[in-house]
What does this fold into?
Amino acid sequence: MKSGKIIILGSGPAGCTAGIYAARAGLEPLLISGPVQGGQLTKTAAIENWPGEKSVSGFDLMDKLMDHAKSLGVNFISDSIVSADLSERPFTLKSENETYRADTIIIATGANPKWLGIPSEEKFRGNGVSACATCDGFFYRDQNTAVIGGGNTALSDALYLANLAKHVYLVHRRDEFRAEQTLTDRIHEKVQEGKITLVLNAGVTEILGDEMSGVSGVRVSFKDGSTKELPVTGVFVAIGHIPNSTLFEGMLEMDHGIIKTGNSCYRTGTSIPGVFAAGDVQDPVYRQAITSAGTGCMAAQDAARYLKEAGAI
Ligand code: FAD
Ligand code: NAP
It folds into this structure.
């Protein structure tokens, strides 16, 4: 059994930043790094919106963050949690082979984008297919792009790309958007300006191209049975995210799997006092490395204040 004042779950930007702040507050944090050491960013080639780094590979950036945390004494443990008991303090977390106990927990387990699940999407992921327009849109400036989805993310992505790309096709499976009205109105303005084309009642059935030159188009199928090819080099899948929160289902208040925070006097506090959440797992809107790091910093400070008020430090 391993125990500590604070356990951080996740080694992405949120977890590492929480580790840095918790270590500097003298909390001697244990950080359980989970199945993806360094988190989602390690899977992307170039990050160009992390302040202070004009361009850095996701792997190198996360290597630096983990190294920084380790240099301050954060105890990184290569393990993944499979069950939790938050009914009493100290809280208990279990992996396949170990039990962990802590007075406070910071959940920074991230979220994964939903994908269409077609084979050609997998083939071109990272080479023409992305789930993050804010991250990768820049690489498609002055090119034709497609955005798939009809929610706030898809419409925000389409608007973002409309300012960068040559043209944007917004492909949605219905003829009505679930996004908020203001975004829908702005999309229609861009349609009038000729920057966006709506491709409605349609689904992408294949992403076209070859491995050497990447994506050259998408094939869409309409509800009436017809098909069409759209000439695009960038495809942005924006059909929702799945937060890594199933471990805590039935224990913490959530909205569609997103852990609710700010329920108490702690901005990152969850519905259970002493349990904090940071990063994408609690973020329905921004989901960026920098915002994840920011909430990681907040969670560590909240946890330190909580421990002090509880008389644990
Ligand atoms: P994550 O980075 O997802 O990390 C989650 C951590 O939790 C992982 O270490 C995982 O191993 C761990 N974990 C999960 N389950 C468990 C468990 N059961 N037990 C223990 N640990 C667990 N953002 C930008 O700002 N700029 C970009 O250019 C950018 N590009 C991106 C490109 C791609 C392809 C993707 C997918 C995302 C990109 N993002 C970018 C978004 C960014 O990666 C995320 O917003 C950010 O990584 C979220 O950080 P996080 O720490 O909350 O979670
Ligand atoms: P979302 O609201 O769940 O929308 C997902 C969209 O993708 C829906 O239009 C859905 O179609 C479509 N879709 C889902 N699965 C699909 C599939 N397999 N194939 C094709 N299309 C599919 O997800 P989101 O847009 O990422 O938003 C998530 C949350 O973040 C929401 O609460 C949203 O309000 C919030 N958010 C807010 C902002 C903002 O405030 N500006 C920005 C981004 C996100 P249907 O409509 O037919 O179901």
DSSP finds seven helices and 19 strands in the chain. Helices lie at 13-24, 58-71, 119-124, 133-136, 152-162, 181-192, 289-309. The chain has a mean pLDDT of 96. The pocket of flavin-adenine dinucleotide (ligand 1) is lined by residues 9-15, 32-36, 39-41, 43-44, 47, 49, 80-81, 108-110, 113, 131-132, 135, 244, 247, 279-280, 287-290, 292 (CB under 6 Å).
